[in-house]
Write a structure and sequence with these properties.
By secondary structure, the protein is of the alpha/beta class. It has a domain at 60-251 and 294-346: Inosine-uridine Nucleoside N-ribohydrolase, Chain A (Alpha-Beta Complex). Helices cover 36% and strands 18% of the residues. The protein has 12 helices and 14 strands. The strands form 4 sheets. The chain has an 8-stranded mixed β-sheet with strand order 5-4-3-6-7-8-14-11, sandwiched between helices. Strands 1-2 form a two-stranded antiparallel ribbon. Helix 3 links the parallel strand 4 (87-94) and strand 5. Helix 5 crosses helix 7 (224-233) and helix 9 runs antiparallel to helix 10 (264-282). The radius of gyration is 26 Å and the shape is globular. The relative contact order is 0.13.
Length: 366
């Protein structure tokens, strides 16, 4: 063998074959030079950082309901959701926290949640694309009286539409105030929505509580009366992601730095929210290690990332259980008349996180 050389750099072999005539060797060399010259003159194809609209179309409607002023996992979920074209976002609701919550101890936590949602959308240059509604700043005073907020009215309006056939999912990563209020305003929505809710304690036959657990789970504790409306009184279809399942969604700090922070202004913004929290808790001599629970991200996994055929969250596992009664302490009680609900006990975190990382990269390349 011999090398053909261009600018002192070898570019291909010339076979030294005694059976090959001189003429054939010349033709071989000429063909190689032409091919190489063409390839050197061509520029690399430009990376198209977007989903082709011809291939990914909306096949469901969603309303996102979250306490964006609290745990920053809600902002990660929102960023992922707005980058997922198979789910048409019909509204984003900023919901309240429990009174005195360390994330925001003010009396305007839903108002502040709206500000946070709009701040993220502005960072992503999507500030005019989605309607953002304010939920109630208060818990329900009882299980019969709705809080008539803009968020609750938005749920009713979208659920009662007659001009669309795509399913409507209410994606709730917070308390259930807005969903319960919407139901109390118009009970007919129970036949027109699917509620995907991050919240509720473990079911004893499916999981063991974490070490040092509190019996009252965080999101259910935001508004127990609202939980009673949805679970005890309504017939709303529920896909529940209780505490044991949402605790599976661990994002490593190394992944945050390499796969999120590096992806433009959106990645920097989201990373700052986690790093700021890590610094803040150290003031109280708390150290949260090197993972963070992205507990609201299953809202995207169970909707936008459903299977292509026989659409369903087919890579995550659930059990059908009778809906329990929620008591005044926010604990489950047996309900022999309860409708079947889905209780997820294992989530496909690989699909969820890899899709998030990839979409952030698409976004940063635009």
């Amino acid at each position: 063998m011999g090398w053909a050389v261009l600018n002192r750099r070898p570019i291909f072999y010339i076979p030294k074959n005694k059976s090959m005539t001189f003429k054939k060797q010349i033709l071989f060399l000429a063909t190689g030079i032409i091919t190489t010259a063409v390839s050197f003159g061509q520029s690399k194809p430009k990376f198209e950082a977007s989903f082709a609209k011809d291939f990914v179309m909306p096949r469901m409607r969603v309303i996102v309901d979250n306490d964006f002023g609290g745990d920053p996992d809600g902002l990660f979920q929102l960023a992922h959701q707005v980058l997922s074209p198979s789910a048409e976002i019909r509204g984003i609701i900023g919901s309240h926290l429990k009174p005195g919550d360390p994330f925001d101890a003010s009396n305007e936590t839903a108002t502040n949640a709206v500000k946070k949602a709009k701040e993220l959308l502005s960072i992503m240059k999507l500030q005019d694309k989605f309607p953002v509604f304010e939920g109630s700043n208060l818990q329900l005073k009882d299980s019969k009286t709705p809080n008539v907020s803009e968020g609750a009215k938005a749920i009713v309006k979208e659920a009662m539409r007659e001009d669309v056939k795509t399913p409507l999912y209410i994606l709730c990563g917070a308390g259930l105030t807005e969903v319960a209020s919407a139901y109390l305003i118009e009970p007919k929505i129970a036949d027109r929505i699917i509620l995907v809710w991050i919240g509720g304690p473990e079911y004893s036959d499916l999981a063991t509580p974490p070490p040092g657990y509190t019996s009252l789970e965080y999101n259910l504790g935001i508004d127990i009366a609202a939980g009673q409306v949805v679970f005890n009184d309504s017939k709303i279809p529920i896909w529940q992601v209780p505490r044991n399942a949402y605790r599976e969604t661990l994002l490593a700090y190394s992944e945050l730095l390499l796969k999120v922070k590096t992806q433009g202004k959106t990645g920097e913004y989201l990373t700052e929210k986690i790093e700021s929290l890590m610094k803040r808790v150290q003031l109280f001599n708390l150290h949260i290690g090197e993972t963070y629970i992205m507990g609201d991200s299953p809202l995207v996994l169970l909707t936008a990332l459903q299977s292509s055929f026989e659409a369903d969250p087919s890579s995550s596992f659930y059990a059908l259980k009778q809906s329990p009664l929620i008591n005044a302490q926010g604990l489950y009680e047996m309900n022999i008349k309860g409708r079947d609900i889905r209780v997820y006990h294992h989530l496909d975190t690989r699909l969820m996180f890899e899709d998030f990382f990839n979409k952030l990269q698409f976004k940063s390349k635009k």
